[in-house]
Amino acid sequence: xxxxxxxxxxxxxCVPFTRKSKFKQKSYIKVVPATKLTKMRMGDLAGYKAGKYxxxxxxxxxxxxxLRDNALEATRQFLNRFLLEKxxxxxxxxxxxxxxxxxRENKMLTGAGADRMQTGMALSFGxxxxxxxxxxxxxxxxVIGVNGQKNESSARKLVGSIKARMPCxxxxxxxxxx
Length: 178
Hints:
This protein has 178 residues and is of the alpha+beta class. The chain has helices at residues 45-49, 69-86, 149-160, and strands at residues 41-43, 55-61, 65-68, 91-95, 101-105, 127-135, 140-146, 170-176. The chain has a domain at 52-102 and 133-178: Alpha-Beta Complex (Aldehyde Oxidoreductase, domain 3).
């Protein structure tokens, strides 16, 4: 069975659902799905910490959103691959949020006779199907550090092209280091 559309989850206000205990009887969540996000920091980490990069682009959200881990991983792979192509190895790239929130789904049956087999909204807590991170207005999603005007414009174009992969409006904040 495939994934539900992002509109089912992204703009709906929700309470964080993260209760996982090491004691099984105290845990509300019995099975925690693995996150699809594999790397958080890419590029030249030592150079970024030393202040080598003159321009830092911070990609922020414009409204509250629930961002799934598969959307984060898709944008991470896209940005990392094209930053390596366009900018070279002289960049720093970091994914800020971590998907702690666990998404549940009350699976419904379809077809003839399904109404006699399922419970409807009784016992509708649902099973865990994925992970997401809950972001507020202005929370950072990505941090990109580059040198030079040409590399900055290339990074801005790449961030502009990830809009189809993200369920929210984005804002790019520029910080110039001296």
